[in-house]
Amino acid sequence: MRRFKARWREWGAALVFLGPGLVLLWLFVIWPALQTLSLSFQDRTGFVGLTNFRHLFSLPAIVNPQRFLRQEPPWGALFHNLVWVFIHLPITVGLGLVLAVVYARVRRWWVGLARGALFLGIVTPMIVGGVIIRYLFEGHSGIIPQLLGTLGLGRPWSSGWMAFPETALLGLILGSIWLWTGFSMILHSAGLSAIDPELFEAAKIDGASTWAEFRYITVPLLRPVTFVVAVMTFLWELKIFDIVYVATMGGPGKASTVLALEMYLATFRSLDPYRGAAIATLITAFSLPLGYWFATRRLRR
């Protein structure tokens, strides 16, 4: 009887502390997600099965395989997200790793300033980041077009990148590298601080070069951190919205649109919540398997 009362008190205390959070989680996460999933299989007449998804893949704004890598964008929001992943992810993950190693080894006064500049990208709201990117590539006052014009490059490189379909998507991707590299650098710096310094000392005694230390000690021991950074970066790139919304609104001519922006436009501009829900479900379908695999892998450890 005493054991039962003790167990009941434990469950009661757990319910008191977890209950409010679980209620909020249900109201603002689980229930809206289930409603979105339900809407993605409906239209104004009722249940339509996979019709919304078949319609999505027939829209050039979502998928445009006839132009992909054959002509300049637009290639469709789905392909734009994939291009974002293939360019942005390796650069931010690799650059964050390299900078973390360099800043850990170099003892100069400017290291703190450089770290602060990268960290500023993390704390900068993405809306503000979109404004910065837009003016960074602006034709008359932007630093990048002016510099490329000085080097002798013509249009569109020396003009406003956001005004040309050939450069709008690339400008957004390159501009967002600063906003996300700091995240990669900080996590890799934290991982470096956990590596036993005696490993590097032993490697130096054995005559290992700096490159050998980086290749055979730093990279293998930071692999779990790099994996976390890569997964988080991939999920961020799939749901990218605010930078595109502020900088280009998906233009010119859908040349820089992404899935999350198309979801917003379908739901709140075209007033078609069924198509918007289908796009949201599509984004979830791409991100959920990786998120589930990542979570189960972490739990096994």
Proportion of strand residues = under 5%
Amino-to-carboxy terminus distance: 37 Å
Topology-level CATH name: MetI-like fold
Taken from the alpha-carbon principal axes, the silhouette is flat
Explain what you see.
With 301 residues, this protein is mainly alpha-helical. The protein has one domain (40-300): MetI-like fold (Orthogonal Bundle), CATH 1.10.3720. 71% of the residues lie in helices and 1% in strands. It has 13 helices and 2 strands. The protein has helices spanning 2-39, 51-56, 77-105, 110-123, 126-136, 143-150, 168-193, 197-205, 210-221, 223-238, 242-247, 259-269, 273-300; strands at residues 42-43, 46-47. A two-stranded antiparallel ribbon has the order 1-2. Helix 1 packs antiparallel against helix 13 (273-300). The longest helix has 38 residues, at 2-39. It is flat. The model has no long low-confidence stretch (mean pLDDT 86).
Topology:
Blueprint: H1 2-39, E1 42-43, E2 46-47, H2 51-56, H3 77-105, H4 110-123, H5 126-136, H6 143-150, H7 168-193, H8 197-205, H9 210-221, H10 223-238, H11 242-247, H12 259-269, H13 273-300
Antiparallel strand pairs: 1-2
Short structural description:
The chain has helices spanning 2-39, 51-56, 77-105, 110-123, 126-136, 143-150, 168-193, 197-205, 210-221, 223-238, 242-247, 259-269, 273-300, and strands at residues 42-43, 46-47. It has 301 residues and is mostly helical.
